[in-house]
C-alpha cells in the first residue's frame, strides 16, 4: 500500500498515540470512534415539520451524548478488523447480525491509533493500532464516502471509494466538483 503522507499525516498526526474510545456500531455496518478529550454535545428540542406524531417525538427531546476532540466515522465501505492474522470482525451483516461488528468495536476500544495509510488507486485504507489491530477498508461501490475524520478544528477529511478526498470545514456542504487526488508517496 502506498503512503500518501501529506494530508493524511497532517490531519491524523494529533491523534497518533491517543487511545480510541466509545467505539460504537452504528446503523447498518457503520463504525464510529472518538479520540481526545470528551465533550458533551447537546442538540436542543425543535419543532418538527412532519405531521406524524411518531416522527415528531424524537425532535421534541434534548439529545446529549459524548464526543471526542476527534471523531472517526467508518461509513459506506466494506471493512475488516484484524488483530495479527486473526479476523476479529467485519462489516458483513449476513447471518451474524451485528455480532461481528460489536466484537470489532470491543476489540478496538482503548487501542491507540499509530498510523493511517491509503491506496487511492484501489480506494483502500488501513488504520494501524498499537496493540496489533488493523482496520482495513475497501470500496463496495464506485464513489461512496468510505470514511470521515472530524478534527478538533471542525474540519472533516472525507475519503471516497474512488480514492479522492476532501478536506474542508465540517459545516460546509460537500461539493461534487471539489474532490482532490492524493499526491503519490512511497511504498510502505
How would you describe this structure to a colleague?
The chain has 188 residues and is mainly β. It has one domain (2-187). The protein is 13% helix and 41% strand. It is built from 3 helices and 15 strands. It has helices spanning 5-12, 53-59, 99-108, and strands at 2-3, 20-25, 31-35, 39-43, 63-67, 70-74, 78-83, 86-90, 113-119, 124-129, 133-138, 145-150, 155-160, 165-169, 186-187. The strands form 4 sheets. A 6-stranded antiparallel sheet has the order 2-3-6-12-13-14, covered by helices on one side. It is globular, with a radius of gyration of 17 Å. The model has no long low-confidence stretch (mean pLDDT 89).
Low-confidence region ranges: none
| Strand coverage percent | 35-45%
Q: How many separate helices?
A: 3
Query: Fraction of residues in helices?
Result: 10-25%
Domains (count): 1
> How many E strands?
15
**What about the largest sheet?**
6 strands, antiparallel
Query: How confident is the prediction overall: mean pLDDT?
Result: 89
Q: Output the radius of gyration.
A: 17 Å
Shape: globular
Q: Look at the helices and sheets and give the structural class.
A: mainly beta
Indicate the multimeric state: single chain
- Sequence of strands across the biggest β-sheet: 2-3-6-12-13-14
Order of helices and strands: EHEEEHEEEEHEEEEEEE
Q: Give the terminus-to-terminus CA distance.
A: 6 Å
